[in-house]
Amino acid sequence: MSEPAPTQDPGDWTGPRPRVSGTPVVIGAIVIGLVIVAMLASVTNRPGTAALLSQDYTSMMAGLLAPEVQTTDPSALASALVQQGLPFAPRIVALEPDFRLLGGRRHKVEAREAAAWFYRAPSAEMAIAEAFEGNLDELGAPDETRTDGARPMRVYRKTTQTIVCWQDGSIVYTFASTLPTEVVLRLSRRLVAPVDSAR
Fold first, then answer.
1. Which of 102, 140, 173, 188 is most buried, judging by how many CB atoms fall within 10 Å of its CB?
2. CB 62 within 8 Å of CB 55
């Protein structure tokens, strides 16, 4: 009677493995190291302020960022936001007939107190303006700088959006829309306070 064939240890399902050493091991270690560095960078890197402003426009269009105070009166809106605890009085301007003011809300930009207010054009085009305490340099390098108005304006382009930003004392103001850049700049200039105005 023949002996039964030996069975392989079920825990050793891979069978004998060749020993790998030398260059393949070094290359593999380098690749794994690069992957880990890339993963850590993606976790620790935060989007810049200009990118966050772009995200706010997208949130507005998706209905996730909307007015909590609904009024077409700029002064009433600014007063209401201050009454809600906003630590500064934003300069809010009507843009009719190009855009109708819908209202606004307290908001956060990089954990800083901010105001956001919203406009709609007769064509249904939307725009968002924001204000927060800070410095233009925190927004990073712009795609373009315009100095042909009352105040220098920095222009950022994010996908289809144009975001125009300017400094007024300690407050950064922004205006964003998907309208052509020159139109967004023209509307932004209407929002800008005269240089000699008192805050």
1. 188
2. no
- Predicted pLDDT at 19: 63
- The model's pLDDT over 34-57, given as tens digits with 9 standing for 90+, comes to 444 344 333 333 458 889 999 999
Q: Which residue has the tokens 């996908």?
A: 159
Domains, the chain, in order of start with CATH, read 49-191 (3.30.200.100)
DSSP string, the chain: -PPPPPPPPTT-TT-------SHHHHHHHHHHHHHHHHHHHHHH----HHHHHHHHHHHHHTTSS--SB--S-HHHHHHHHHHTT-SS-------TTT-EEEEEEEEEETTEEEEEEEEE-TT--EEEEEEEES-GGGG---SEEE-SSSS-EEEEEETTEEEEEEEETTEEEEEEESS-HHHHHHHHHHHSPPTT---
